[in-house]
Design goal:
The chain has about 90 residues and is α+β, with helices and mostly antiparallel strands. It has a single domain, classed as Lrp/AsnC effector binding domain/regulation of amino acid metabolism (RAM) domain (Alpha-Beta Plaits), CATH 3.30.70.920. Helices cover about 30% and strands about 30% of the residues. Strands 2-3-1-4 form a four-stranded antiparallel beta sheet. The two termini are about 25 Å apart.
Amino acid sequence: MVSAVVLLSVEHDWINEVGEALVEMDGVGDVYSVAGRYDLVAVLRVKTNEELAELVTAKMLKVPHIQHAETLISFRVFSRRDVDAAFSLGGSS
């Protein structure tokens, strides 16, 4: 599984519409509207690097009103769900 975070600058009148369009795409788990340097943060999870490249360049960046995007590919994902699942299966730290 390949995970990435995409930081997006969007034309301000279009933030909600762009967020709604992104979250409908396969591989986009969540889209957050945020304050600060970027307007939206999209969390991606796909099977391969090729799928990630296709999702970001051929689909996401074709959505109108996106001005800039920065993609952060993860090396490792630390998730509360993973920790909780390990303990429920009898794992220990």
